[in-house]
Structure formats: C-alpha cells, structure tokens
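Record type: ASSEMBLY
Status: queued
Input:
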Amino acid sequence: MKAGMPICSLAGALALALVASPALAATIEVTIDKLVFTPASIEAKVGDTIEWVNKDAFAHTATVKGDWEVMIPPESKGRMTLEKAGAVDYFCRFHPNMKGHLDVAP
Amino acid sequence: MSIKHTASLAALVALLLVSATPFAQAADKPTDPQIAHIAYTAGVIDVEAAKLAIEKSKTKEVVDFANDMVRDHEAVNVQALDLVKKLKVTPEDNATSQALSKAAEEERAKLAKLEGAAFDKAYVANEVAYHKQVNGALETLLIPSAENAELKSLLETGLKIFQGHQQHAEHVAGMLK
Ligand SMILES: [Cu+2]
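Status: finished
Output:
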C-alpha cells in the first residue's frame, strides 16, 4: 500500500474486514482440575482452537478414538484447532473416566 | 519419614487377588496419620509393580501402561508428602499397610517368575484387581474416615486416579486377549 493512503480509508478497510468475516476464530478454554474437564461440553466451530488448561500434577490427554489426540502435560496446556464439523466425545487415555464432548459447527 | 519401606508392586497385585482384603483387618476407623500411611503405601506398591513390568515386559502397551502408573502414583505421593508436611502429620505404620505390603511382596515374587505373555497377562490382571481393591477401600473406609478436609480432598483425587487406572488396565487387558 502507498504511504500516502489516507488513514481513514485504512481504518475503513480494517473495519470492513472485521465485519465481513463473521467467523472469526475463537479460542475456547477447557480447564482440567482434579481429573474433570470443565466445561464438560463445548460448542465451537471449525477454525476455533480448544485450549486445555491442566491444573493437575498429572498428565492427561484429550483423545478421540481413531481420530486425534492432544497431550496435556501436568500444570501446562494443550491446544488444538478444530478442522472438521461434527459432534465428538473425547476422553483421557490415561484416565478413561475423564470425559468431554465437542459440538463443532461448520 | 518411615514410609519408604518398599512394598513390591507384585505384592500389591497379589494382595488384591489372594487375601480376602487387607483392608478388612482394619476393624477400627483408621486415623489420619494411618490413612496417610495406607494411601502412600498403596501408591508405592503400584510403582514397584510397574517397575517390574517395565523391566520384564516386551509389550509396548504394557510398558506404556506401567510408565503411566509410575508417573501418576509418584505424582500423587509427592502431593501426599507435601500435605503431611504442611499438616505436620507423621504417617503412622499400621496393620493395613503391613498387610498390603506383605501381599504385594508375595505377588511380586509370583510375577517375577513369569515371562512373556504369561507375565503380561498376570501383571495387567493384577493391576485391574489391585486398583479395584484400593478403590473399594478409598470409597468405603479411607475417605469416610479422613478427618482433615485437605487429606479427604487428596484421597478423592486419588480415587479418581485409581478409577481411571482401573479402566485403563481393563482396556490393556482387553488388548492382550
Ligand atoms: Cu487423565
């Protein structure tokens, strides 16, 4: 872009870009505390990122059988960007009694 | 602290399967120092069993599972030690801890003689049984008996860990068939 471009039009273009893309990707946080995913069920859309914040001293995973797995180290985070729409149940492979659910809109 | 005595992993398993249940010997409600000792001992036993499995097994799923057991139970026990230090509680040896350790040693001796698929199967079956037994003890005896709220809360987290391990062990057992 030219240096001489009026500032107002730049701002206008930015504003337009923001308005024109309704599907701004969001980051959705899921907390893990004492072996519980909170919230247990999440509604998201393709392109959103899920970030698991692990407060436990234990490693966990978010695993969808036969599909994907995110490792979530102790007192750390794991993240994943959702690539496809659909509803999936996930669980922790180390502690299969830990369960979560994702509803992913297109 | 004196709870470093090592009950073997195998013993843990053996305990589970063989004796009706060492926990049944504790007719009286255990005190917090005793509960802390029992919970710590139960974790040590599972770590010892896991170390035997890591050494002996050549099956990836079994070795992975055993590594998970070492990692989790050591993490729980670090928390337990931190808590007793904070509460200025000295874990107290007791008949239940001793019965657990003894049974675990016997089981470990049994496992040590097995090789290959026979070892894998026996180890994992014992893991299922042991975790089931400890879960029962936590639910019906240790958690209800704990006086201190923080100890109770740690035991409740421990119960969820053990329940998770039981399911994990059941899954591994299914894969070995
Ligand atoms: Cu987990």
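Annotation: The CA atoms of residues 3 and 24 of chain A lie 28 Å apart.
Annotation: The longest strand of chain A covers residues 27-33.
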